[in-house]
Amino acid sequence: MKTLEVKTSSATYPVYIGDGIKRNIVDLITSTGHSFTKLMIVTDSAVDAIYGDEMVRLLEQKWSVQKVVVPNGEQSKSFAQFEHVHTKAIQFQLDRSSCIIALGGGVIGDLAGFAAATYMRGIDFIQVPTTLLAHDSAVGGKTGINHPLGKNLIGAFHQPKAVIYDTSMLETLSQVELRSGFAEVIKHALISSEDFLSELMSIRSLTGLSKGELAHMLYQGIQVKASIVQEDEKEQGVRAYLNLGHTLGHAIEAEYGYGAITHGDAIAIGMQFALYVSEKQLGLRLHREELKAWMKELGFPIQVTQDISTKIFVDRMIGDKKARGGSVQLVLLKQVGDVTLHSFTKDELYHWLEEWKREEGCL
């Protein structure tokens, strides 16, 4: 088992990564030093079918445990499911010494974390990720739900008390889900180091990755995120670097329809756009075509495929929570590991999107 410590201005907590460590979940939770009266597991229908009953049995060795199951998919990051989780918490009589266990991927972590942040003005929660994608969302304390007009517009910063990452649970992921999570690993490499990126690019297929390789990638990616979150917990500065590819990516998710494209695939397209602008605007020296070909080989989409106008995408991006005063801040690279924020007006954004789409053959 590997252990990382995440330090922020408001909290310090451990991240445990290992094969089969869910069997020791009682000891791992107890080792954090927090005394909980009750636990409420929040999970989705897909994860529940595989791990739900087992997790209840494991945790019941020490605590009174209840379970809430929401539908699988991005659609569960909604007001309706947020209210549903709160209703169950009230019915189960959770108190301020209770803890919510987020068992699932990024959607569950965001939903359960936001419920924990707001129930009785805030109770504890613990992340138990079951997807590769969740290595990004499980660390850092961002929680929230979507609004029909935009992704993650309603939420709170609420750090977990621990992250327990059992790599054996990644074995049940589909190739689509595995690829979605790998997009965020690529992002962490692009904003951190050429060595990490080169290491990833030696992977020619996501099929058959060993648990050791997955654990190493998770550790590397979480290390990158933890170092940034430690410096800037509430995204006042460098934490925005973690949004590489996300401004356009979120617009794509919203316009395609939540669930129609995975988060990772949308971010992969968004990163292609950000790297294009970085090359043209900042002179980024990166073998972008080689990177694009590699990502395509792994199965990622590398361009916008739906017939959606540039204006609609720009309007979505202007409405993103990262926009400021009618302009959009894009995360760009001067070089791999050298990140900057650059503001674009609506017209400038339109120009770059049109140019990029034309070059990619989308127009």
UniProtKB/TrEMBL annotation:
<comment type="function">
    <text>Catalyzes the conversion of 3-deoxy-D-arabino-heptulosonate 7-phosphate (DAHP) to dehydroquinate (DHQ).</text>
</comment>
<dbReference type="GO" id="GO:0008652">
    <property type="term" value="P:amino acid biosynthetic process"/>
</dbReference>
<dbReference type="GO" id="GO:0046872">
    <property type="term" value="F:metal ion binding"/>
</dbReference>
<feature type="binding site">
    <location>
        <position position="246"/>
    </location>
    <ligand>
        <name>Zn(2+)</name>
    </ligand>
</feature>
<dbReference type="GO" id="GO:0003856">
    <property type="term" value="F:3-dehydroquinate synthase activity"/>
</dbReference>
<protein>
    <recommendedName>
        <fullName>3-dehydroquinate synthase</fullName>
        <ecNumber>4.2.3.4</ecNumber>
    </recommendedName>
</protein>
<dbReference type="GO" id="GO:0000166">
    <property type="term" value="F:nucleotide binding"/>
</dbReference>
<feature type="binding site">
    <location>
        <position position="184"/>
    </location>
    <ligand>
        <name>Zn(2+)</name>
    </ligand>
</feature>
<dbReference type="GO" id="GO:0009073">
    <property type="term" value="P:aromatic amino acid family biosynthetic process"/>
</dbReference>
<keyword id="KW-0170">Cobalt</keyword>
<dbReference type="Pfam" id="PF01761">
    <property type="entry name" value="DHQ_synthase"/>
</dbReference>
<dbReference type="InterPro" id="IPR056179">
    <property type="entry name" value="DHQS_C"/>
</dbReference>
<dbReference type="InterPro" id="IPR050071">
    <property type="entry name" value="Dehydroquinate_synthase"/>
</dbReference>
<feature type="binding site">
    <location>
        <position position="142"/>
    </location>
    <ligand>
        <name>NAD(+)</name>
    </ligand>
</feature>
<feature type="binding site">
    <location>
        <begin position="130"/>
        <end position="131"/>
    </location>
    <ligand>
        <name>NAD(+)</name>
    </ligand>
</feature>
<comment type="pathway">
    <text>Metabolic intermediate biosynthesis; chorismate biosynthesis; chorismate from D-erythrose 4-phosphate and phosphoenolpyruvate: step 2/7.</text>
</comment>
<feature type="domain" description="3-dehydroquinate synthase N-terminal">
    <location>
        <begin position="68"/>
        <end position="179"/>
    </location>
</feature>
<feature type="domain" description="3-dehydroquinate synthase C-terminal">
    <location>
        <begin position="181"/>
        <end position="323"/>
    </location>
</feature>
<feature type="binding site">
    <location>
        <position position="151"/>
    </location>
    <ligand>
        <name>NAD(+)</name>
    </ligand>
</feature>
<keyword id="KW-0862">Zinc</keyword>
<keyword id="KW-0963">Cytoplasm</keyword>
<dbReference type="InterPro" id="IPR030960">
    <property type="entry name" value="DHQS/DOIS_N"/>
</dbReference>
<dbReference type="GO" id="GO:0005737">
    <property type="term" value="C:cytoplasm"/>
</dbReference>
<dbReference type="GO" id="GO:0009423">
    <property type="term" value="P:chorismate biosynthetic process"/>
</dbReference>
<dbReference type="Pfam" id="PF24621">
    <property type="entry name" value="DHQS_C"/>
</dbReference>
<comment type="similarity">
    <text>Belongs to the sugar phosphate cyclases superfamily. Dehydroquinate synthase family.</text>
</comment>
<keyword id="KW-0028">Amino-acid biosynthesis</keyword>
<feature type="binding site">
    <location>
        <begin position="106"/>
        <end position="110"/>
    </location>
    <ligand>
        <name>NAD(+)</name>
    </ligand>
</feature>
<dbReference type="InterPro" id="IPR016037">
    <property type="entry name" value="DHQ_synth_AroB"/>
</dbReference>
<keyword id="KW-0456">Lyase</keyword>
<keyword id="KW-0057">Aromatic amino acid biosynthesis</keyword>
<feature type="binding site">
    <location>
        <position position="263"/>
    </location>
    <ligand>
        <name>Zn(2+)</name>
    </ligand>
</feature>
<dbReference type="InterPro" id="IPR030963">
    <property type="entry name" value="DHQ_synth_fam"/>
</dbReference>
<keyword id="KW-0520">NAD</keyword>
<keyword id="KW-0479">Metal-binding</keyword>
<keyword id="KW-0547">Nucleotide-binding</keyword>
